[in-house]
Amino acid sequence: MAAAASLALAGVHGFVWLRQHAAVASLLFCLVAIGTAGMAACELWMMNALTTEEYGVALKWFAFPLWLMTVALVGFIHFYLGSDRPWLGWAVCGLRTIALALNFVASPNVYYSSIQELRRIPFLGSEVSVVDGMPNPLMLFGQLSLLLLAAYVLDATLSGYRRGDHRRALSVGTSMVFFVLALSLQTMLVLWNAIDAPMVASLFFLGIVATMGAELSNDLLRAAKLAEGLQMRERELRGEREVTDAIFNSAPGIIFLEDDAGGIVRWNSPIDNGGPIEKLGGDKLGALLYRSGDLAELNRARQATFEIGRYEFELDLKGRGERPMRYFFRTVKVSFDGRPHMIGVGIDVNALRQLAFEAAKQKEELAHLTSFASMSELSSSLAHELNQPLAIILSNAQAAQRLIALEKPDLGELGEILADIVSADIRAAGVIKRLRSILQHGEPLLEPVDPIDLIRQVLRLAKSDLEIAGVTVSVRHQRRLPAAHADRIPVEQVLLNLIKNATESMEENGSKPKQLSVHCVIEGRALRFSVRDNGCGLPEDSDKIFEAFRTTKPNGLGLGLTICQTIIKAHGGKLLAETNKSRGATFHFTLPIAS
Predict the structure, then answer these.
(1) CA distances from 120 to 117, 129, 536, 587 (A)
(2) Cystine design at 89: which of 16, 74, 235, 528 (Cβ 3.0–4.6 Å)?
(3) Would you state the pLDDT for residue 274?
(4) What are the boundaries of each domain within the chain?
(5) Is the dihedral of CA 571, 577, 578, 580 positive or negative?
(6) Are 76 and 29 in contact (CB under 8 A)?
(7) Neighbour count for residue 405 (Cβ, 10 Å)
(8) pLDDT for 17-75, tens place per residue?
(9) CATH architecture of 445-592
(10) Of residues 83, 245, 108, the one with CA closest to residue 176
(11) Is the bond leading into 324 cis (omega within 30 degrees of zero)?
(12) pLDDT per residue over 219-269, tens digit each?
């Protein structure tokens, strides 16, 4: 059974070595297994011997498979585990070879000087033959080789463990040390007549064979998994290569990869010169030159690329027509397959110049349109922001006319009206001056502004409109708010515009209450003003409400929020809008806190 198992494993790994000669460990394992099978056959021969002469012959031939197994085992350990003391392995092989030679010289063999008696003893449910004889001192060569073999295996085990190969060292090395010591002890006790038992060294070697076979089988399984992984990676690389080829071949311009010997490895060109690019020969780029004198420049570019790593140059190449095509090339030195290569990319300069000319022309037209739009926006902005103070002036002037028409006009009230007219006029002038400065990218006239006073002033200006619309106003703010760093008049216009928009958004509320709230809180190093209403809310494209000339009002210009955003940005703040959870919308803007 031991011989059959050993020969089966020997056949498997022998076939592995025949298919792959680099697997030296499989060949050596095959020899170890064959040696173990030969030892088992000789041991079975000795157990069934009927005479002392037959026993002596069987024992003589036992030395040969033992020598084969020992030498192959040393080689296996050397290739599989490695050893820091190779001389120890050579010593094992030398001593075992000496023992083999002495075995065929000595009579009857190297183990006994003489065999006196053959006896039959019970063993594993049967009777086997054992002998009584005079031990031969020469067998110490063989026994010493077994002890050195155990030492060599132990040294290789420690070496493998120190190198980090813990699994192999522990599974193969330790089991080999155990079985070699065990078989050495059993063989010595039998040969020196210390115990009454047959020689069964092959059973111990079978343990070594089983351990080695299991480890090699694991290696084969790991190799199979690795091969499967490599095949999968190869398929992935093949797919990546197809994608790369598609990108490479569809890229505009000329792309090429050239080795240091001038050979083209990869090539892509939109120029076919009337036929397939493959017909241009080895130096494809040189064959495309419009002037043969440019070949020196091309060779100089190649030499410079391999020497300094990169180069830039221009060449005239043949086109489909009579006129040349000017190409700008940039070449870079790269490493490919362990050799220096040059990769180059060429771009059609004529096409780039045409694109640059068209871009410059479009830029000029855009600048003209932008200038026209800016003038239009400025005039529209001034008209939009002056509407309110002019309306105040008009209403006050009409009131003054009605008052003068009376027989006894109230001069005190008339004076108040004239004062309001003057104030509105001054405010209109301030709006023109400040708004024009901001829209022309000037700097606002910043000063500390009390946020509570700012809100009160704006609500006073909008009081009549709010009362007519039936809007209920609430003001909430934190205590002891710091001053804002702002230009008062433009910021008042922003807040006034947001309140006016909120009032108009609540016109469709009908019988429902119209509620407007103005909040002011500290947010980091800024003040956040919020105007909240319960009106119709924001339109569906709320992200575009700050764009110029976009309005939902029938007679609106669509500039109010654009101007407000420009003013707030000029102050270093932000203007945002959000839809309320219940109804309506809330607009927020921030102003920096005065230092």
Answers:
(1) 10, 5, 115, 112
(2) 74
(3) 37
(4) 2-226, 251-352, 445-592
(5) positive
(6) yes
(7) 8
(8) 888 887 787 888 888 889 889 988 998 998 999 888 888 888 888 888 988 888 888 88
(9) 2-Layer Sandwich (3.30)
(10) 83
(11) no
(12) 667 777 777 777 787 777 676 667 666 666 666 677 877 888 777 777 776
Residue with the two structure tokens 């050239």:
258
CA distance 557 to 585: 21
Q: Which residues partner with 131 through β-bridges? A: 118
The whole-angstrom separation of Cα 401 and Cα 397 is 6
Which top CATH class is 251-352? Answer: alpha beta
> How far apart are the C-alpha atoms of 270 and 276, rounded to whole Å?
10
Residue 493 has pLDDT above 80, yes or no: yes
Q: List b or e across 145-183, with b for residues whose CB sees 16 or more CB atoms inside 10 angstroms.
A: bbebbbbbbbbbbebbbeeebeebbeebbebbbbbbbeb
- In the sheet that holds 264-268, the strands lie side by side as 264-268, 254-259, 339-348, 325-336, 310-317
Angstrom distances, CA of residue 132 to CA of 120, 237, 311, 334: 11, 71, 91, 79
Beta carbons within 8 Å of 412's beta carbon, 6+ residues apart:
none
What mean pLDDT comes out for the span 372-399?
Answer: 65
263's CB contacts (< 8 A; 6+ apart) are 282
Amino acid at 371: S
For the CA atoms of 205, 210, 211, 214, the dihedral, rounded to the nearest 10 degrees, stands at: 160
pLDDT > 90 fraction of the chain, expressed in percent and rounded:
9
Quick check: helix, strand or coil at residue 573?
coil
